[in-house]
DNA sequence: TTTCAAACGGACCGCCGGTCCGTTTCCTGT
DNA sequence: ACAGGAAACGGACCGGCGGTCCGTTTGAAA
């Protein structure tokens, strides 16, 4: 990769991250990003394909670090299986809260596009593995979806910003619910 | 309200509903709707304000009927408190599944706009009331959010269309999880 | 029938995502 | 050191869309 290309790539990514953080999930246009990064519009599209690609790239930069953090917490010490699930979910929660506007922007593009992004799939698979170690008989695949749904960025924003729930309260609720899911019986559910 | 105005209103609503159902949550433009309804663009905007207003109006038409249905199920017979929650959630699930593209379109606009729409608030309040009758000590306000998050349209679509889970399986999961939430202890949750 | 407020409709505007292509910049081979 | 060419650049340009405006039409009340 050519030197100027790399420099521009970094500049665009940094600028996009900043604009999203400052002005919200849809408070930026591609022209904005290009101009603020001191780069031509064509350069942005050449590198990232389209708007969704840019958002995806910004997310990729941060998601790798959070994933490493989660994995470190999981490996460190001999955490019992149930606590591993809790740790994973709690870490995910913190990560989403820390980057709310970015994650909201990301959810919008990933929901819209056909391709299921690799990131979400990884998270889901990891959680499935963790859950099935605690409740071998349960529908781990569904439960993982259910827990992830709890920490969707727009859901969290809705609770916190619109309904005024405190972040700590929501966090406690999420963790409590995760515990309930893991410890409760698995009723086959009629009607 | 003038006769022609009423006729046009109905035509636009029906056309919008059809287009959303046929072409997905963002497969229509305001020009499309106006043309397909045999009406001028200005007429659509005059009546519904903007794109979001149109979607909201389409939703309002159907949400009233589902709400009535849910209320009927709740009143009919002497359903025990816990089953009332299950019934409510299950009915909501069925409603969302039945109108997936419409509800997805709606979630996008309602998430974006500042005003928390009356509809979602109503649903939430009703669920809070039902839950607090079953678990007086729990954080019913949060739990209601958590259960509603389970039946968010884009989450359901993600599970069903992208991850290939059967609708019946997801429905069973949702109900099972709701039961778990209601019957489980309310751990105060550390970490 | 007159009258006028209300509704209509489509031309028009500005913005935005995405493309195109002439120009510039960096690397490589000699 | 230099020449050549591939790769990157950048901004003019395009089509579509949400939303507005205003001259025209329509329906109902007096």
What does this structure look like?
The structure is a homodimer of 191-residue chains. In chain A, α1 (3-23) crosses α6 (100-112), α3 crosses α4 (51-75) and α4 (51-75) crosses α6. The model of chain A has no long low-confidence stretch (mean pLDDT 93). The longest helix of chain A has 25 residues, at 51-75. By secondary structure, chain A is an all-alpha fold. The radius of gyration of chain A is 19 Å and the shape is elongated. Chain A has helices spanning 3-23, 30-36, 41-48, 51-75, 81-98, 100-112, 118-134, 140-150, 153-162, 167-183. Chain A has 10 helices and no strands. The interface between A and B is large, with 45 and 45 residues. Chain A binds a DNA duplex (30 and 30 nucleotides) through α1, α2 and α3.
What characteristics describe this protein?
mainly alpha, DNA-binding, homodimer, 191 residues, elongated, 10 helices
